[in-house]
What we know:
Blueprint: H1 5-17, H2 20-27, H3 31-45, E1 50-52, E2 57-59, H4 61-88, E3 90-95, H5 97-114, E4 119-124, E5 134-141, E6 150-160, H6 162-167, E7 173-179, H7 191-197, E8 204-210, H8 213-223, E9 226-230, H9 231-240, E10 244-245, E11 250-259, H10 268-283, E12 292-293
Parallel strand pairs: 3-4, 3-5, 7-8, 7-9, 11-12
Antiparallel strand pairs: 1-2, 5-11, 6-9, 6-10, 6-11
Helix pairs in contact: 1-2, 1-3, 1-4, 2-3, 5-9
Amino acid sequence: MQVSLPALKAFESAARLGSFKAAAAELSISPTAVSHHINKLEQRLNVTLFTRAARKVTLTELGKELAAATSHGFQSIETVIEKITTKDKQINVTTTSSFAALVLIPALQEFYTQYPEIQVNITSGESIDANNFTLPIRLGETAKQSSRDILKLEEFNLFCTAHAAAQFRQTEQITIYTTDWKNSSLPKVPLQSWLELNGLLNKQIQVRYFDQELFGIQQALLENAYVFSSRTLTQGYLKAGVLTELDTRTINSQLCYYIANKEKRLSRHNFKFIEWLEELLKKGGITSNKDIAS
């Protein structure tokens, strides 16, 4: 049997407050409207729900049964709505450890300054979370991604301390740290192409590998060595003056950062986060007159 939802709401309020007038005030309608809703409900159910007196209404036994059910039902609905609303204010991000540590986490305070009502939860890892309520920011092969999903195309160059940069041309043998991806399906970092592009094939170079860019950057800093890395992950160190970008020609890679099925994940708060992230990656780029090779 179908009954009117407004009638059930009017009944629940009147039963809980013990007054048609109080129910009307709570629901922002007139006492006559409350009485009309309840009369219609009683007619629909063919029962008497209230015993009416001059200044008082009292629930009948059947009314008490319905009052218990409606009170529980509306309370359950309000609880779920509150839960959904709270969840909507949280953004769950999964991404690589390097992107989380070097890009997202250092910039989060800037996001909270703009959107203090939104909580961002970051989980790092190599697997993609298929949950539509999670934003998976991944590193992948550009050719395999939809252009709509791509956040930033990756460029690579050599980075080091200012002291190491000054010695680069004079030093006969150097150590370069770079990345051999844990995910073997990813295109290799374009170190060989970069060396050829910059006429460095004859230079004595010892190459050492980590499976994450983060480790190579840290080790290069510790040893005053060089790291062949993406510009995206070094942008924070560059701004802080900890690293400098060598005056060599930057090379495009076959890699990009992307959000799989980005358009399907554009909830209200996710949209704000993605918009902020795209701006962060855009302004994080270093303005340069150097050639960028494909």
